[in-house]
Amino acid sequence: MQIQVNSSNHIEGNIRLNEWVRSTLEATLERYDDDLTRIEVHLRDENGAKPGLHDKRCQLEARPKGHQPISVTHTATSLDLAVDGAASKLNNALEHFYGKLRSKRGALELSDPEA
What we know:
Blueprint: E1 2-7, H1 15-28, E2 36-45, E3 56-64, E4 70-76, H2 79-111
Parallel strand pairs: 1-2
Antiparallel strand pairs: 2-3, 3-4
Helix pairs in contact: 1-2
């Protein structure tokens, strides 16, 4: 699974931030490592240089092999909370997505007269 980190002009994207984001996502989503080709991370400060509540946004776009991308967004007061929240949301979305796939496959196997 490849992880690509992008940040807006108002967020200083450095190696330490990129490594922290990668390690957070790898730890949270390690069970999907073989199922995903890539995760794109978009970090953004909604208010720019102006202070404000819930102005840090993290958007994650996961690309499951052979399927359409799944995207989630989380907004928080800090980048740490935004990334953690988005990772948790993506974990739940992937769990739901693969659960639906498993139930469809199970239904097909049960209805197959040759099984």
